[in-house]
Amino acid sequence: MKKYIWVFLISMLPLIEIRGAIPYAVLWGLPLMPSIIVAIIGNMIPVPFIYLFARRVLEWGKDKKVIGPFFTWCLEKGEKGGQKLEAKAGRGLYWALFLFVGIPLPGTGAWTGMLAASILDMDFKKSTLAVLAGVFLAGAIMLVASLGVDGAIQLAK
Length: 157
What we know:
By secondary structure, the protein is mainly alpha-helical. It has one domain. The chain has helices spanning 2-12, 17-27, 32-44, 47-61, 68-89, 93-102, 110-119, 124-156. Helix 3 (32-44) packs antiparallel against helix 8 (124-156). The longest helix is centred in the C-terminal third of the chain and has 33 residues, at 124-156. The two termini are 27 Å apart.
């Protein structure tokens, strides 16, 4: 039970998320299906809070003396990046969010994806579904990577 709690907590950490939780579960020899479910739940718990509060916190902090310049930079960078993404992705913005979260590279997880959705004022429900689908994809990729191709084929049999 203690190892599942660690998988859960690791999956909640920004930048590490499910990308770190799945390899740890495999390393510890935990049963895969319960580990994946625990990791997905842990990865998704912060998502609504990030969406609902990230932009508000950045807006609040942009006028503060110490943190203001950084918060302003975050807002401006997010808005500029969002406008470029919207121009390129068009109606496929949620597909772009799904792929951004789903491809397990550093800094492209649920935390960053939902922060971008918040800054861009994207629809909460659609963004959450895109991020959830991306977390599933990232989890599957990390599972295959953790088991190796041969282990993943053996698992599928």
